[in-house]
Structures are given as structure tokens and as C-alpha cells.
Specification:
Elements (H helix, E strand, L loop, with lengths): L5 E4 L5 H12 L3 E6 L5 H9 L7 E5 L8 H5 L4 E4 L13 H20 L4 E5 L32 H19 L5 E7 L1 E3 L12 H8 L9 E6 H13 L6 E5 L2 E4 H12 L13 H8 L3 H6 L12 H7 L6 H14 L4
């Protein structure tokens, strides 16, 4: 395989970023990953080495909340995948705990990339930057043109952080004259197989189902995508001939939570005996939300059927997504195999 140019992946220890590293290494790129501390990079390299050639992998120290380190991180890199961003298990008391590092960190990476003459940058945004704050009775599918309305009541700090970080990046690119090619990848709920036991918060829903934390599922619809496709989207966005400014929605299907549970039960059989088999009535979820922060987050979304039309993304990137039920079942299988339930 011919070795290609070097790509910087920010926050390489994260669930999506690690899979991006595997995708890029296996496509022949050299990969440099940023971490906040170099202390555990040995474990990370061993994990990635099970799935790709780690001889083309290196690490540098850089923190989204600190200026120092970013110029050195991008030096010599032709491309950047800006994946790092805070992802909370629970909403913080102060929304700026998420918004500030997401926005300011994005600006640090963009400024450094522009100054260093980086050719292409792909930002990992999210579907939460697309679909919140709209009318409750909206029937039209969400598309690449939609944006979360951060001023609307009930929009979470995490949704605001991803929306404002992507907005800030696009505003920066309107003024940038370096020739940097920019695009964003906006995944929904990221499912699919875990590479190792360090799964972060992306797998929390599936993990809770497998552990039997809830007797049923909230009546809630979520856009879903496999992490392998999210990584592929990053590479395709990096390599596309499409003009700068692309916005690519990572959604295979929109599933009700009960559909995710059913897919897991079908795949795992007895190993999924604790996975819910029914939907909870809305009143029960609202009651649980008084005591359980995770249930509380579901309350505003109860009964809303989410629809997404990302045909533009599919055509532009030429991607066929792994079906979301398969992504859910594969994630559950990997969690069982890794002893995480």
C-alpha cells in the first residue's frame, strides 16, 4: 500500500475518533492523534494495532481548552479530522462547561490548521445541531439545510455546544483565505461495534438495555448510524471532489427505541433476556424523570417521530449505510463479548 499524507485526528481516544483512526490507517494515511495526556497512549496504540498498522500512528499532547500545542499538532499534516468535543453522560449545571470548550476548541484547531496550510479539515458535528428547537408538530424530514434553534426553550447544553461549534467553524471559513477545504459530518446516535472496553458514553443506551435498567423503553425516535460508517464518512468527506462547505448527515435509519431493543433481542437471544420488550407509557417516563436525569432528557421527545432525508449526503459521498438495526445488534454483541454488561 502506498502511504498517503498525514492526517491529524483530534481527541483520538474517543469512540468515533478511534474508529476514524482505523479507517484512515487502513486507507494508507499516516495518523497523528491528539490526547490531553500521553500517559495512556501505550494502551491506545495496542488497541488500534489489533485493527490497523500502528507503525503509521503517533500521538501529540493538546487540549481543546489550552492554546499551547495546537501549532505543533498540525505541523506537517495535510488534513485534520476535528473529532474531539465534550460528550456528557449527564447535562451539566452550567451549560458553558460544554459550550465553551466546544466552540473555543474548534476555533483553536481551525486557526492552527489555517495558519499551517492544512489542505482539508472535517469537523465532527452532530444531528443535534440539526433537529432541535423546531415546532413539536413538524412533519417534514430534516435535511442538510436544517439547523437547531438554540434560542428555543428546552434545547440542551450539548445540543447548543455542537450547534454553536459548527456555526463558529462555518463563520470562520467565510473569512478564511488560506484555501482550507472544510466540511462537517453530523452523525445521529452512533451504534456499531466497540473496539475495546473504553466505550465512553456513546454506548450507554444499549448498555442500559442489556443491564435491564428500565422495564420498558420511552416512546422516542432517534436517528441512528453505525460507527464504521461515521468513520467512512470522514474519509469520504476528506477525499470528495465536492466544493468546500459540505454538510453530511450520518443517518442510516430513524428508529424508535423499542426497535433498537428488538434488534438486540433478535441477535443476542438469551444474552438479551434483560432487554425491554415493551414501550413505557409516557406518564411513567415523566414520573421517572423526576428522579432519573437520563429519563428526564427523554421527556420532551416523547412521541415525536423523527424523519431525516439525507439523500444529498448519500449521493455526494456515494455511501450506502449499514442498516441501523444491524448497528444496534452489533454494538450489543460487542459489549457482551467485551464483558461490559
Amino acid at each position: 500500500m502506498v502511504t498517503k499524507s498525514t492526517v491529524l485526528i483530534t481527541g483520538i481516544s474517543g469512540f468515533i475518533a478511534r474508529r476514524c483512526a482505523v479507517e484512515m490507517l487502513n486507507a494508507g494515511y499516516r495518523v497523528r492523534g491528539t490526547v490531553r495526556s500521553l500517559a495512556r497512549t501505550g494502551e491506545l496504540k495496542q488497541s488500534l494495532a489489533r485493527h490497523a498498522d500502528a507503525s503509521m500512528l503517533e500521538f501529540v499532547q493538546a487540549d481543546l481548552e489550552v492554546d499551547a500545542g495546537w501549532d505543533a499538532a498540525v505541523s506537517g499534516c495535510a488534513h485534520v479530522l476535528h473529532v474531539a468535543s465534550p460528550f456528557p453522560a449527564r447535562q451539566p449545571r452550567d451549560e458553558q462547561e460544554l459550550i465553551r470548550p466546544a466552540v473555543q476548541g474548534t476555533m483553536r484547531v481551525l486557526r492552527a490548521a489555517s495558519a499551517a496550510g492544512v489542505e482539508r479539515l472535517v469537523q465532527t458535528s452532530s444531528m443535534v445541531a440539526v433537529m432541535y428547537g423546531h415546532a413539536d408538530d413538524r412533519a417534514a424530514p430534516f435535511t442538510e439545510a436544517d439547523w437547531t434553534r438554540v434560542e428555543s426553550p428546552g434545547v440542551t447544553a450539548y445540543s447548543k455546544s455542537k450547534t454553536l461549534a459548527e456555526r463558529a467553524a462555518r463563520d470562520f471559513m467565510q473569512q478564511d483565505r488560506s484555501g482550507l477545504h472544510y466540511s462537517s459530518v453530523n452523525p445521529g446516535l452512533v451504534l456499531g461495534p466497540a473496539l475495546d472496553r473504553d466505550i465512553g458514553t456513546s454506548a450507554e443506551i444499549v448498555q442500559m438495555f442489556l443491564r435491564g435498567k428500565y422495564p420498558g423503553t420511552p416512546r422516542m425516535s432517534i436517528p441512528c448510524v453505525d460507527v464504521r460508517d461515521v468513520a467512512l464518512m470522514h474519509r469520504l468527506a476528506l477525499e470528495t471532489a465536492a466544493p468546500s462547505g459540505g454538510r453530511y448527515l450520518g443517518v442510516a435509519d430513524c428508529l424508535w427505541l423499542i426497535d433498537i431493543a428488538r434488534a438486540i433481542r433478535v441477535r443476542l437471544g438469551p444474552s438479551a433476556r434483560k432487554v425491554p420488550t415493551r414501550e413505557l407509557p409516557d406518564w411513567a417516563v415523566k414520573l421517572a424523570g423526576i428522579f432519573d436525569p437520563a429519563a428526564r432528557l427523554a421527556v420532551p421527545e416523547l412521541g415525536k417521530e423523527i424523519r431525516v432525508d439525507n439523500s444529498l449526503t448519500r449521493r455526494t459521498l456515494g455511501i450506502t449505510f449499514i442498516p441501523a438495526p444491524e448497528a444496534a445488534a452489533t454494538m450489543a454483541s460487542s459489549l457482551v463479548d467485551l464483558g461490559l454488561v
